[in-house]
Design brief:
Layout lengths: L6 E6 L2 E6 L5 H8 L6 E6 L9 H6 L7 H15 L14 H10 L6 E5 L2 H9 L8 E8 H7 L4 E4 L7 H5 L2 E6 L5 H8 L9 E7 L3 H10 L4 H4 L3 H14 L3
Parallel strand pairs: 2-8
Antiparallel strand pairs: 1-2, 3-5, 4-7, 5-8, 6-7
Helix pairs in contact: 5-9
Length: 249
Amino acid sequence: MARPKRWKFEYNKGIQTVTLSSWKYFHDFIREELIDSSNYVFRGQKNDNWKIEPTLIRYSNSQHKKKYETILENQLENFKYSIRGRAKNLKDIIDIDNELWALGQHHGLFTPFLDFTESPYVSAFFAFHEKENETTYRVIYGLSLVSVQYRLKDYFEIFKPLTDHNQRLLSQGGLFLKFKEDSDLETIFSDVFAKEDKKVKLFKIRIPTKDRNMCLKFLNSMNINHNSLFPDMEGASSYCNTKLLIDKY
């Protein structure tokens, strides 16, 4: 009997799109193709057609009369004034812009930050934990840290907060990618690496949405669930609700 095809590749301008035939091959792919996975950070999204861009850039692109730099500066200054007396230990971070952006990101502020994680399995959880989805594939991005630190330092900055304002970030092995330009991740990669062949800087891993329950059961067996990633009452409630649903299958 012929062995089923586990995945297929499509390379374009520094981006390797990988389509898995099933979630059950995700672990094999990480082990075989991303041997040095420590060089990557990961992000999961429930829609493989969405642009990879921060909320502030998404807003900025809808405001044709204002420059991104102006919006960025105004947003941060407004946030500084608005949180006076509302944030614990604010005096420790009030002069550190990235720490303020990280605090705002945790509380729903439009920021130049995108959440990433050091774990491909945690990113898979965020790609699959929400049920509602009309797309055929969920997607996990694997971003090369070396490419960010050397080739893309004018476009991005990796930031790991040092304060304890966000306990969830610790549980999720989280960090942030700060965008310096008002563009999305794939567009920047395509522009920078347009003339380079076979040098993968970004993995785009597509996994069938239909395998959601299989994925969540597997991750739950690794203790990757709402309970472990969201150490609060909301996380406990979501864990129980999700477990109730996946236990039906």
